[in-house]
Specification:
It holds the Pfam family adh_short_C2. The structure is a single chain. The chain is α/β, with parallel strands linked by helices and about 250 residues long. It has a single domain (about 5-240), classed as Rossmann fold (3-Layer(aba) Sandwich). About 50% of the residues lie in helices and about 15% in strands. A seven-stranded parallel beta sheet has the order 3-2-1-4-5-6-7, sandwiched between helices. The chain starts with 6 loop residues before the first strand and ends in a 6-residue tail after the last strand.
């Protein structure tokens, strides 16, 4: 068990990549703090993990709200006494082309995907500095590296996450804290499953493996980067995209 006794906080943990990551971390022995907007949904994931013998605390919080994030950290520390790993997985899309994108669409995506990552990481980093150890892992995207049609807001947010990752790696390394990001390609989640079959086939064709990724593919990457096997890796972006952007 590569994460035995490690305390890991995962935002956006009730479904998709977040849920798969929670399951993977539980199987590797981590103690979990699962965070999402809806308590009933995060409780469902928590209950599954507990039934499988895992240790889990489910909490409701909006990562864009700094007061809620502060309370999240306090509750986590009161329950476990430490936070070893943070995975900033919470994120949304609200797509539109440049000339059609509303100010509300821009603000909401930047608020969740960029400010939310900042809020959680800043609060957790203060704990990790006191501990003199920790790992922060951020969800970026291949569109944060290469852009995408109709995703000005999402691409900007995910590109910003990469630059925050590299900046924090430089700042926090002296405190024994590693910071990395994962840039997923097209993953088979509820969001992607809603697109027309013709579009899905086009997306698959962009991968040299000719398939969508599974949430577990990303979860495995997070588990590696969180573990001591990656103890000399910081400030990097791991593409997990099936060769979509070689």
């Amino acid at each position: 068990m590569k994460l035995k006794e490690k305390v890991a906080m995962i935002t956006g943990a009730s479904r998709g990549i977040g849920e798969a990551t929670a399951m993977k971390f539980a199987s590797e022995g981590a103690k979990l703090i699962l965070v999402d907007l809806k308590k009933n949904e995060v409780d469902e994931t928590s209950d599954v993990i507990k039934k499988l013998g895992g240790e889990c605390l489910g909490l409701e919080a909006d990562v864009t709200d700094r007061d809620q994030v502060e309370q999240l950290i306090k509750a986590s520390m009161a329950y476990y006494g430490r936070i070893d790993i943070v995975i900033n997985n919470a994120g949304i899309t609200q797509d539109a082309t440049l000339v059609k994108m509303t100010e509300q669409q821009w603000d909401r995506v930047i608020d969740v995907n960029l400010k939310g990552v900042f809020n959680v990481s800043q609060a957790a980093a203060k704990v990790m500095i006191e501990q003199k150890s920790g790992v922060i892992l951020n969800a970026s995207s291949i569109v944060g590296l290469y852009g995408n049609y109709g995703q000005t807001n999402y691409s900007a947010s995910k590109g910003g996450v990469i630059m925050m990752t590299k900046s924090w790696a430089k700042e926090l390394g002296k405190h024994g804290i590693r910071v990395n990001a994962i840039a997923p390609g097209y993953i088979s989640t509820a969001m992607v499953d809603k697109v027309p079959e013709k579009v899905k086939e086009m997306i698959k064709s962009k991968s040299v493996l000719n398939r969508l990724g599974d949430p577990e593919d990303i979860a495995n990457g997070y588990a590696f980067l969180a573990s001591d096997e990656a103890q000399y890796i910081t400030g990097t972006v791991l593409n997990i995209d099936g060769g979509t952007v070689i």
